[in-house]
Amino acid sequence: MTVASETPASARLPVADPPQVRRAALRLIRQDRRAFAAMIVLTGLAAAAGLVGPWLLGRVINTVRAGGAADAVDRYALTILVCALAQLLLARYARLVGHRFGERTSARIREQLVDRALALPASVVERAGTGDLTARGTTDVTAVGRTLRDAGPEVFIATVQVLFILGAVFVLDPLLGACGVLGLLGIWFATRWYLRRAHTAYLAEGEATSALAEVLAATASGARTVEAFSLQRRRVAACQEAIEHSRGTRTRTLFLRSVLFPSVDVSYVIPVVAVLLIGGALYDAGAVSLGTVVACALYLRQLSQPLGAILLWVEQLQSSGASFARVEGLADGPRAPALTGRAPADERIEVAGVRYAYDDGRDVLHGVDLTVRPGERLAVVGPSGAGKSTLGRLLAGIDRPRTGTVTVGQVPIARLDPDELRRQVVLVTQEHHIFVDTVRDNLLIAAPAATDEELRAALDAVGADWIDELSDGLDTALGADGLRIDGARSQQLALARVVLADPHTLILDEATALLDPATARHAERALAAVLEGRTVIAIAHRLHTARDADRVAVMADGRLTELGTHDELVARGGAYAALWHSWHGEPPPSPR
Q1: Strands laid side by side in the 505-509 sheet
Q2: What is the rounded (10 degree) CA torsion for 472, 475, 479, 483?
Q3: Last residue of some domain: 299, 332, 365?
Q4: pTM, full prediction
């Protein structure tokens, strides 16, 4: 098994290509164009001020050799000092403007990421895995923000300085300028070699980081299952494989840096040496003055600082460029279907000719037809893998059928406005989330205006009487720094939220699986009482739910094979009857 198999390629979230990244960067610049323009102007002024010093130093040398007066040298020295101070102040202010630009732009990127992540269909997020989305929202966004705040302004300032310095050398003497540029070819070749490989390498590193996060998250969230089925060795092996794969991608990027930086360090000296040697020959021939040679050498020596800054941040830019591509890739992610804007005519749910397939393209539902009447209690049963949970997700509007329709009041459920959808249908599964907050705030998520009496009534409805034993009651803090509750109590809180949400249709997908049989039966009966007159669709292995239901739908191999009341199906002697007798430990009745 490879690490990539944790998330199928077809389920992975997209990554933006280089043209998309460039367009996104330009769009962000346009949104804060004034700050960006101010940074350009200040950087240009700082670079221009930095050019004065070497040029005046050359003038000082020529003045001294010509026997000039000391006051002329003093004026040159004072001007050099003033220009150095001006360069320092302008450069610092340019960095301040650049950092502010970076922080604002980073905030925009974070807001865009949240908006795009929330716009993704829940099914897409589930199949992609939380690890990838988490890594993009934390590691990748942080890398982009750090680049915009630090690397971006530094590289921009350094680039302007390099261009100004090379321009000054060419103005002083074109031949010496050409020598300096030719001496920099070593840096150009080393950087080109690095850039051809770095983007792909850093994308691979980011993907490996996401895969590692997904494996670790899956192992942690499924700790009870791992322990129950003695899967420790298998999960440790999967984690070790993901770690090794991540380490290999990081080693690759480290190798690229280990080639780039030594090559650049050697290349800094070459243009200075070339100018001194060729400039010395030209000076002996009387073609240039000594001051010109010294000024050109000093200019080229100055290149080491801005070039060093650029190349120091090249690695960061490549890493953050790959991160930006992953963040911006969410813009190309699938979107939920267009909303209808229509309100359902009634509460009748109809499933007609539904087929559904996951990423491998193989249908898991085959032509399912089902009508759920308002106020009906319907139990969906069947062996594992029969398609029960998939049908529940379609009924809740999380997934869309490949063919066929799933409607409520003649409106496609998946195309309802989210607020309208929550008023119509709520799906409760074994999975739930308890926020690091108080019991009260965890419940108010479902009904912000609920009173304490309503909160306690909802808790009583699902049998959560343990709340009365807490010293702080509803104000008890939950989480690592507060009360740690087990899976059964967490699920009771999740069910209490459903009671407070008060939808007309409730889908329970083995929602009481973590509760003991007595507590589960009490919670289900309490929910049925609270939701009297509402539609309840229960998907469970515990067949007492089916016995209490108005009708039972039996699934097998993605098909609806039986539909009727409990007594009718038991009397029929088919698949449901076999399940019922097996559940009670009874041999099936002999065929008549």
Answers
A1: 425-428, 505-509, 535-539, 377-381, 551-556, 559-564
A2: 10
A3: 332
A4: 0.56
Domain identity same for 355 and 311: no
Residues 384 and 498 in one domain: yes
Domain CATH number, residue 262? 1.20.1560.10
Q: In what order do the strands lie in the sheet with 349-357?
A: 363-372, 349-357, 403-408, 411-412
Residue that the structure tokens 């010395």 belong to: 280
The burial class, CB within 10 Å (0-12 / 13-18 / 19+), for 35 is: middle
Domain boundary among 282, 298, 332: 332
Q: Tell me, what's the pLDDT at 551?
A: 92
Q: What does 277-303 look like in DSSP terms, one character per residue?
A: HHHHHHHHTTSS-HHHHHHHHHHHHHT
User: Is 11 contained in some domain?
Assistant: no
Match 């360069």 to its residue by tokens.
87
Say whether both 363 and 278 belong to one domain.
no
The pLDDT mean for the chain works out to 79
* Domain count along the chain: 2
Domain that holds residue 142: 17-332
Q: What is the pLDDT of residues 221-272, one digit of tens each?
A: 777 777 777 778 888 888 899 899 989 998 988 888 888 878 777 777 788 8
- The 10s digit of each residue's pLDDT in 183-229 is 778 878 888 888 888 878 888 888 888 788 878 877 887 777 777 77
Shared domain for 306 and 431, answered yes or no, is: no
- Helices 18-31 and 70-119 pack at an angle, to 10 degrees, of 110
Closest CA to 458 of 383, 368, 531, 364: 531
CATH number at residue 382: 3.40.50.300
pLDDT in tens, 21-69: 888 888 888 888 898 888 878 877 887 787 777 777 767 777 776 776 7
Residue 5 domain-assigned (yes or no):
no
Closest CA to 320 of 114, 154, 152, 193: 152
Distance separating alpha carbons of residues 298 and 292, to the nearest angstrom:
10
In a domain, 592, yes or no: no
Q: b/e per residue, 259-282, with b = 16+ CB within 10 A? A: ebbebbeebbebbbebbbebbeeb
Tokens of 357: 């397939």
